[in-house]
Amino acid sequence: MEGFPWDVLLAVAGIAVPAVAFLWEFALVGRKRLGYRVQMDTPTASGRGFAPTADALAQLQHENGERLVDPSFVLLRIENNGTTDIDTDDYAVNENDRVGIRVKFPGRTVAGMVVTELSSPHLHECFGDDSGFGARDENPERPAGVIDLPRVPLNRGAHYKILAVLDRIPNGSPDDFDDPQVVGEIKGGSLRETKSRTGPTTSVIALILFLVVISIFQLTRSLVFDEKPPPLDCASGKLTITGSTAFAPVLKEATASYAKTCPGASFAFDTRGSAEGLGSLNQAGNDGVLAFSDGAKGEGFPQLLPRPVAFSLFTLVINSDAGVQDLTLAQIRDVYDGKIANWREIGGKDRPVRLVDRHSDSGTRRTFEGQILAGKREPGDNSDDCLKPAPGAQPGVVRCAKPSTNDVLDAVSRVPGALGYSELGAATKREDVLAVRIDGHQATLEGAIHAAYPFWETEYAYTFGEPKADSLVASFLRYLTNQVGKDIVRSHGHRPCAELANPVLCRPGA
């Protein structure tokens, strides 16, 4: 039955059945309940009859002096095992009848009896001479001894016990005695036999089995049959992510998380640099492409709309063989102008300077040129292997260009004296390169906010026009800027724009 709310039905049944059982047991049938229990019904000898001996049992006699033929002892317990008190008026007998319960012993006669235990001393007066407490014989077709018990008021949990000596009726059947018969009725309640037990009752076992079956059935449905509906903000379709390679690790984790939550969505990646990503989006012109850029787009692409996503930190990275870890802004600019060709000139080791750059369409490179080189463009590359100038290339400091952040980090790690730049999250995960302090300041959010550290930029998401609210583009952007997406952004060393004390820092041109 597709669409039937089985989970709701099972949950209601799991609550309702125990609740009804509780009310039935303790508020309805069990509210006023008198219980009886035959705790002992034992003959005095292993065989029928016994020869007179000096034993005290042999001296048992009826009131008329006759010795008992086949005596037996019976211990009877009467108890209030309901949830409310029982008064004398609760016994369903005539108003003038002093007897509330009658206990019959077929095939036996009552030789004597005594009250052996009272749960409360005040119950003793209920068994006086005119209380109705006594024993007699009935002589219908099946003779039986009868014990008459008075209408004893019992508080909840109260009880009393009667010990009786009985004898087989002469010429009666030599077979085992029939079980005692307890006759009586309680108004608005019941009189029933109770049994002493150490384990749970049958009804409790049945209730436990019912709850176990409900739990197993519900678990089976959850694991095998049920397909959880996607969250309300899920969208389906295919989305191509393009643009920044520096922000790509964040986007790959975020898209994987989104696709797991929303199975109808799929993603493809074409991250070849911020500028090329913006060009691809502008050319596609639809909701199927989302571009990310390190920094604002500039004056081009008027139909592309920016959305600030994260405050991103960048850092210069250097090969440990250079012997340098701290540079001033002036030294960095001199290095990239070609004025410093060997690290020993500024206190490092005797190693030639080799610069590993990004391609000209890289958003990270634009950030580096804008924030560190004060808007000055880097010279073109002159090397293919980052170790020596290529044949016919301009002489001077060795410069090579790489297409992605990881390519830059790989080159810096293997080339002695190499210097490059990268987004902070990717650089801190590498142990084979060193992060460079700028004017003594390491790359921190606090340093960037207070203008002590200059190498940072806003990460933007760009759409072609305003996406439809129910599109995958709009849904994924909401996901990226909500709690799960924020956690992913933060885990890669960036800071969500919405969490900045001064969110204006994330606006274009801040």
From TrEMBL:
Alphabetized, the UniProt keywords read: Membrane, Signal, Transmembrane, Transmembrane helix
**Matching InterPro entries:** PBP_domain (IPR024370), Phosphate_ABC_transporter (IPR050811)
Q: Which residues cross the membrane?
A: 6-30, 201-220
Gene3D superfamilies the record matches: Periplasmic binding protein-like II (3.40.190.10)
Residue span(s) of domain PBP: 233-482
Pfam family for this entry, one:
PBP_like_2
What is the protein named?
Answer: Phosphate binding protein
* Originating organism: Amycolatopsis keratiniphila
